[in-house]
Amino acid sequence: MSDQHLGAGRHVWAVLELLDRQLVDETGRLVGKVDDVEFELPDDPDGLPRVTALLAGLGALANHIGGDAGAALAAAERRLAARRDQHPSRVDIEAVRDIASAIELGTDGLDLDTNRGERWVRDVIIDKIPGARHAAE
Amino acid sequence: MLLSELLGVQVVTTDGDELGRVHDAVLVQDGPMGAQGRAGLRLHAIAVGSRSLGSQLGYAQGTVQGPWLLRRLLGRAPRLLPWRAIVARDGQRILVDLSRISEQE
To answer: Which domain range does residue B48 map to?
Structure first.
């Protein structure tokens, strides 16, 4: 059986075209990479599973920094995930605008759950540094 | 259900034949319209067998077309099993009924 028999509509190979792809928000900011795909199983036994979300493990900052600092941030991200019922970061499929060499999102990355590691660093570390509130002045 | 729950799982027919492991899944954008006015992605088939070099590079799936020599060498299409052929599934094994495939094609 070839994928040509699977019906009309764009065909997407989940592993080849989704996993490890960069998530890019509407401003062009890199907000993580796709680690898994979430499906909703149909009630109808003859129905097909529907993609409901893309799941990402680490926040964008860990990807950007790399090295020991990135690894430390990744560890913090994992701790946060454990506190939040162990759910990974989730991007609703409705937020996806296009699937190409990167996954383009139609939302601001700062609002996404994938960015919680970056938010944690900002709220818990950066904001505690004297003068941090006046960084733009 | 997560994609990772399918990948690497052994696929076995109702006759007991082992077909290999799941290495990819084909999604088709033909689901119900979402809030953004786009059709949703639905899981139509799983790709089984060994994940060849051609699959890893995209030649087997046809998403990469050139150079033509590599396409000829690596473009052997993976074996696809429609989702509706699956009759039972758990973390270790996916049971498929091949007669359901012939009924549909």
So the answer is: 3-104
